[in-house]
Design goal:
heterodimer, A: mainly beta, six-stranded mixed sheet, five-stranded antiparallel sheet, 11 strands, B: mainly beta, seven-stranded mixed sheet, four-stranded antiparallel sheet, 53% strand
């Protein structure tokens, strides 16, 4: 089964608004959670990540919320801008001494000016 | 800055032919990965390696081999390319669990 799921394939937000991107995962042993940003024909780049010992992390306009009991984490982008338009991939995994990391299918965010 | 390069950037191959995708990193990272991306799927892990001369299977290894001859280089080999292997392939490296740095991708079309 799919270990990491992004239920919304697309999201449209007005400029200046808050973009909320959601991700669910299946394995409650996962302890690392990340969001990557991907432009068309480009490689993914890490935006922000958290470990399971925190439930929130802020970095500028970005905030990750982690709900371990619900096996859910989200990315909030405040004051959304047209340059935020991209595909956002969530990822999660477990640090078991080797690395195995699962990505969601992505949510395509469009910020309308 | 971290650097992962891939070659070729795009390739057209014939069914049944052999394809080798190459990845080179200058990050001094121990871990390297090969993913494929298809429409409707997220990135799916094919093979990974945490040390030279050793590779591990990821989630979808069937039809692929991998080779890690040195810390810097990691290759993905399709011995008998098939139509279903048409995809974009990404290589990545990391030195810890924290962040994977991705290469620019290779667009492979199998005809």
């Amino acid at each position: 089964g799919q270990q990491v799921k992004q239920s919304s394939p697309s999201l449209t937000v007005q400029e200046g608004g808050i973009s909320i991107l959601n991700c669910d995962y299946e394995n409650d042993m996962f302890d690392y959670f990340a969001w990557y940003k991907k432009y068309p024909d480009n490689s993914p780049t890490l935006l922000i990540s958290v470990r399971s010992n925190v439930d929130k992390r802020e970095d500028g306009r970005l905030t990750v919320f982690l709900n371990k009991s619900g096996k859910h984490f989200s990315l909030h982008i405040t004051a959304s801008q047209p340059e935020d338009t991209a595909v956002y991939l969530c990822a999660a995994g477990e640090d078991t001494g080797y690395q195995n990391f699962y990505f969601g299918k992505g949510t395509s965010l469009t910020v309308i000016p | 800055e971290a650097a992962v390069t891939q070659s070729p950037r795009s390739k057209v191959a014939v069914t049944g032919g052999k394809v080798t995708l190459s990845c080179h990193q200058t990050n001094n990272h121990d871990y390297m990965y090969w993913y494929r991306q298809d429409t409707g799927h997220g990135l799916r892990l094919i093979h990974y390696s945490y040390v030279a001369d050793s590779t591990e299977k990821g989630d979808i290894p069937d039809g692929y081999k991998a080779s890690r001859p040195s810390q810097e280089n990691f290759s993905l080999i399709l011995e008998l390319a098939s139509l279903s292997q048409t995809a974009v392939y990404f290589c990545a490296s990391s030195d810890s669990y924290a962040e994977q740095f991705f290469g620019p991708g290779t667009r492979l079309t199998v005809l």
